[in-house]
Design goal:
By secondary structure, the protein is of the alpha+beta class. The protein contains four helices and eleven strands.
């Protein structure tokens, strides 16, 4: 299995100050921003990127309590296929240090979430062929064939905001970032 680094999600107390800092100082751009609850409710999350190839390289969620010592929500690692995500689900479920993973999809990715022995969050995911405005989170059934999973996801997300082929999204972002092709 070829696993590569993707992004980190950080819990913050003042999301506006942190987003402004990363945009001003590191020249990241906001890819998406929204609420983690239904409609416009719940904590806010902001997805930032400095590259057209990644929807986000870092995200900030306004969920850090005043007494929380750590700000890490999760580390995310990309794999190349649905089969590799399914293999990780099996591996995690068989590991007594971890327990069952949580299969989630964001429309643009198929993921499994779990915690390491210290309680740090980990996401293993593969990209889907589509871009979908974030945040999104729905369960998915890893017992389905890869083709069935993709057909199911497309039917569930095709009416979601900004649903489009990922290649079109990345091409638009490359223009936004002034990257030449």
């Amino acid at each position: 299995m070829d696993i590569s680094w993707s992004h980190a999600v950080i819990r913050v107390r003042d999301i506006d100050a942190v987003v402004k800092f990363y945009c001003d100082v590191l020249e990241f751009e906001i890819a998406d921003r929204g609420y983690l609850g239904p409609g416009d409710t719940g904590p806010e999350i902001a997805f930032l990127s400095g590259s057209s190839s990644d929807h986000h390289q870092i995200a900030f969620a306004s969920i850090r309590g005043p007494e929380e010592a750590t700000s890490l929500e999760h580390l995310a690692f990309r794999v190349g296929s649905i089969a590799e995500v399914k293999a990780m689900i099996e591996r995690v479920s068989a590991d007594e240090r971890v327990g069952d993973g949580l299969p989630l999809t964001h429309g643009n990715a198929l993921s499994v979430y779990f915690k390491d022995p210290e309680g740090n969050g980990i996401e293993i995911f593969c990209d889907t062929p589509w871009h979908v405005k974030q945040p999104q989170a729905q369960g998915w059934d890893p017992s389905m064939s890869d083709e069935e999973v993709l057909t199911d996801l497309e039917s569930r997300f095709r009416d979601a905001p900004e649903f489009s082929p990922m290649a079109d999204y990345r091409a638009k972002r490359a223009i936004d970032f002034g990257e030449s092709g």
